[in-house]
Design brief:
heterodimer; A: about 210 residues; Pyruvate-ferredoxin Oxidoreductase, domain 3; 6-stranded mixed β-sheet; 6 strands; globular; B: about 625 residues; alpha/beta; Rossmann fold; 4 domains; 7-stranded mixed β-sheet; 5-stranded parallel β-sheet; about 30% helix
């Protein structure tokens, strides 16, 4: 039965929109007729701590928690956080990582080091990894808050259902904010898809 | 927080993606509950946050959990359906009310939702609330997901009304914060039957309580019988090829983990977990070689089963701490069954820790930087965002116990100090909401008993750590409507603090704060320093222009980094040799212009004046006086 369940782990930092992104993914899975459970540990996440959100969907989901080593897709909103959770991936899993870095005060005050090349470290573990700068993509579209939708665009072609299902859920979520916001999110979604696809293409030609 | 819009509830039979907390709220509303009260506490906070958006129900943020339970009891005495919600440690606060209301019983259905923080994402301990159901001789239901939480709230109201006792619904973080598909129903209004005077029931003096006590023990047997017959206690045979080697007794989220890890094993799922259906458990034990209890977190069910003479495994093979996730259950039970151990997943890479931080411009930054600069002090802390002051870079708190303990622990330290500590200055730090929750009595105790402590009241006008709930400190009720706003100066004076020993200081003005703390800690008796600035996550906070670091002026001293603001980032580090010959590491910085909201804290310890407002003019954040 385990094979029929899709496990997606979304990780990042409080305030980045990890939980909202995962909720939209859950809505898309449900729209496709799946049973779905979404869970996170985020007690103090609002204060810049790490956040992980687990999404499992399939015919019937029992435990909401993803066991280490069973993640199909890791959606990393921050490079070091993606590295931290990379051991949750299956050997044939995929990491989609925003390569912008958020450096916490414990690093700034010199107690710890930020890894030199977190994405390289994930790749060195034998994990297929697509990375892109979601923050600058969002910035070019005019609003950093679109980073969340860029990330959803990046995962859209790596789900067991059509990308349009996810896009429709994003549109529904922003519908009450007006047509202009919906359009911006549509563009962010397309940009995220393109960023992941460009990477996939580069991988094939490399 | 701004006014809450009363939502139009989703129609009956809607299939909604609901968290356990949202599912509980929906079912409480559908049950025709009239009064619902809670104090915010992770992981239960969102129940009342969701409930206050429904029409036709009175909801309130109570000042503490004992109050919320008593409010629910009063409503129940009137014949109204009532509800209170709290986190596990909140139930300790409410326990005094609980242990007597279990004697009086209830009239209108009364449900108590208690949420255990299994795994301790945001709590000071991991206590198991199921003990309280035993302690108070009350029934307890335990859902395993949102749909069950929704269903059990309905059943709990009905059970409560039928048996005239409050019913516990025990949640854990893994129920509260898991979202799954939930089918909802119709609201059924419930008109209160009215208060019936009955001193022998409601006035718990010894003579009356002695008459009520036998009823409490008599109903234990009734509840046990109900538990044996309850459709919530289901014996499941196991999926395809029922396994005769091992069976499980389990409840709550652990049920889902067991079902996933061992789909072929027979399982007794305890939906009503107090009292235990011992006959059903005995029947299950007879089917298999080994019976295992998978429960979070203490071996309560296990011990009761063993006391009934049934052989059982439990915490001898499973952890007593944290969640029983699939990857925890599988290896432990396979070891017991001598199964082949599964291959271990890849080891996790070593990455720096990322503890929660105070926000950019948080007024607590000013308090903790200042405290970190003071010598010869002991600081008793408390529960809230400001507990983070115990962490880096401030390391400014020496104790944290429970809600309201800062003042009383400081007072006890003062009375208990020996010659070795005679010159120490003893301080207490507590937020506005914690002070109103359980701190006021402690301050009264300290003034009454002539303590020598300095109390810093960190007033940010909100319950911060749980996400920003209204309190008497910001003068807004749960729905954001105007409510009386507490005057802390008057309050602490009324609690016996001399007017001249009450100081009000802006936490953004660190030199003044430093001076006032020095002065007040030298004074004999109880001093209170009220530091008011609104939480930066509230509407009341008005951001100002960002600051930037002039690279030509920055000397790399790193003083600003010690403020602890997450908007300050190191651009480069250099080793330098001081005139004394001592080698030091310099850290040159920048300020993230998107994160900085211009509180001006970081420029106060900056010796070369290298931090400037982006428009080079003096920017002052207006302090909104209460």
């Amino acid at each position: 039965m385990e094979n029929e369940i899709t496990n997606i782990l979304v990780c990042g930092i409080g305030g980045q929109g990890v939980m909202t992104a995962t909720e939209i993914l859950a809505e898309a899975a449900i729209a496709e007729g799946h049973d779905a459970k979404k869970t996170e540990v985020a007690g103090m996440a609002q204060r810049g701590g790490m956040v992980t959100s687990h999404l499992r969907f399939g015919p019937r989901v029992l435990s909401p928690q993803i066991a280490p080593g069973t993640v199909h897709v890791l959606l990393g909103f921050e490079a070091a956080e993606a590295l931290r959770w990379s051991s949750y991936l299956r050997p044939d899993g995929l990491a989609l990582v925003n390569d912008s870095r958020l450096v916490p005060p414990v690093v700034e005050i010199g107690l710890y080091d930020y890894p030199d090349d977190p994405i390289g470290q994930i790749r060195a573990r034998g994990i297929r990894t697509l990375s892109f700068d979601a923050a600058s993509i969002a910035g070019k579209l005019g609003d950093l808050r679109l980073g969340n939708t860029v990330m959803l665009g990046a995962i859209a072609d790596h789900l067991p259902f059509a990308a349009d299902v996810l896009l429709r859920c994003i549109e529904a979520r922003f519908a009450r904010k007006g047509a202009a916001i919906v359009e911006l999110n549509r563009r962010a979604f397309a940009a995220g898809r393109a960023a992941a696809a460009a990477h996939t293409k580069a991988e094939v030609t490399a | 927080m701004a006014a809450v819009a009363i939502a139009v509830p989703a129609p009956s039979q809607s299939r909604l993606l609901l968290s356990g907390n949202e599912a509980v709220a929906r079912a409480v509303w559908e049950s025709g509950c009239k009064v619902a009260a809670a104090y915010p506490g992770t992981p239960s906070t969102e129940i009342l946050e969701a409930l206050c958006t429904y029409p036709d129900i009175y909801t309130e943020w109570a000042v503490n959990e004992k109050v919320s339970m008593e409010v629910a009891l009063g409503a129940s005495m009137m014949g109204a359906r009532s509800f209170c919600a709290m986190k596990h440690v909140g139930l300790n606060v409410a326990a005094d009310a609980l242990m007597t209301l279990t004697l009086t019983g209830t009239v209108g259905g009364m449900v108590i939702a208690v949420a255990d923080d299994v795994g301790m994402a945001s709590s000071q301990n991991e206590q198991d609330s199921r003990f309280y159901a035993r302690f108070a001789h009350l029934p307890m239901f335990e859902p395993a997901d949102s749909q069950e939480a929704y269903d059990m709230i309905h059943l709990a109201f009905a059970f409560s009304e039928q048996h005239q006792v409050p019913v516990f619904v025990r949640l854990t973080a893994r129920i509260c914060h898991v979202k799954c598909v939930t089918t909802v129903g119709e609201r059924v209004a419930h008109e209160p039957a009215g208060f019936v005077k009955d001193a022998a029931r409601w006035v718990m003096v010894p003579a009356h309580a002695k008459q009520r006590l036998p009823l409490l023990f008599a109903r234990d047997a009734v509840f046990r019988e109900a538990s044996e017959r309850s459709p919530l206690n289901v014996l499941e045979a196991g999926q395809d090829r029922p396994d005769k080697r091992v069976a499980f007794v389990t409840s709550g989220p652990a049920y889902m983990h067991v079902r996933e890890a061992f789909p072929d094993a027979p399982v007794l799922k305890l939906g009503m977990s107090n009292p235990l259906p011992l006959d059903k458990i005995r029947a299950l034990a007879a089917l298999v070689d080994t019976l295992i209890v998978a429960e979070e977190v203490e071996p309560i069910v296990e011990n009761e089963i063993r006391a009934a003479g049934i052989a059982v495994h439990g915490k001898d093979i499973l952890p007593k701490i944290g969640e029983l996730a699939v990857n925890v259950l599988k290896p432990a039970i396979n070891r017991l069954l001598n199964n082949e151990p599964a291959a271990l997943p890849a080891t996790a890479p070593a990455v720096f820790p990322r503890p929660p931080t105070l926000c950019a411009a948080c007024p607590h930054l000013g308090i903790y930087y200042t405290l970190s600069q003071l010598k010869n002090i002991i600081v008793a802390g408390d529960i809230g965002c400001y507990t983070l002051g115990a962490g880096h870079p401030w390391n400014a708190l020496d104790t944290t116990i429970c809600m309201g303990a800062a003042i009383t622990v400081a007072h006890g330290m003062d009375k208990g100090r020996g010659a070795v500590d005679k010159d120490k200055k003893i301080l207490a730090v507590m937020g506005d909401s914690t002070f109103m929750h359980m701190g006021m009595q402690g301050l009264l105790d300290a003034t009454y008993n002539n303590s020598n402590i300095t109390f810093l009241l960190l007033d940010n006008g909100i319950v911060g750590m749980t996400g920003g709930q209204n309190t008497p400190a910001n003068g807004l009720d749960i729905r954001g409507n105007p409510a009386p706003r507490i005057d802390f100066r008057k309050l602490v004076e009324a609690l016996g603090v001399k007017p001249e020993r009450v100081r009000e200081v802006d936490p953004y003005e660190m030199p003044k704060l430093f001076k006032v703390i020095r002065e007040e800690t030298k004074n004999e008796g109880v001093s209170v320093i009220i530091g008011y600035r609104p939480c930066v996550l509230t509407d009341e906070y008005k951001p100002a222009r960002a600051y930037f670091v002039d690279e030509d002026k920055c000397t790399g001293c790193g003083n600003c980094i010690d403020v602890g603001c997450p908007a300050i980032h190191v651009t480069r580090r250099e080793m330098a040799v001081k005139p004394s010959g001592k080698e030091v590491e310099l850290a040159f910085v920048r300020i993230d212009p998107l994160a900085c909201t211009g509180c001006a804290l970081c420029l106060q310890p900056c010796a070369p004046d290298a931090i400037l407002p982006t428009d080079h003019g003096r920017v002052v954040i207006p302090l909104h006086q209460k």
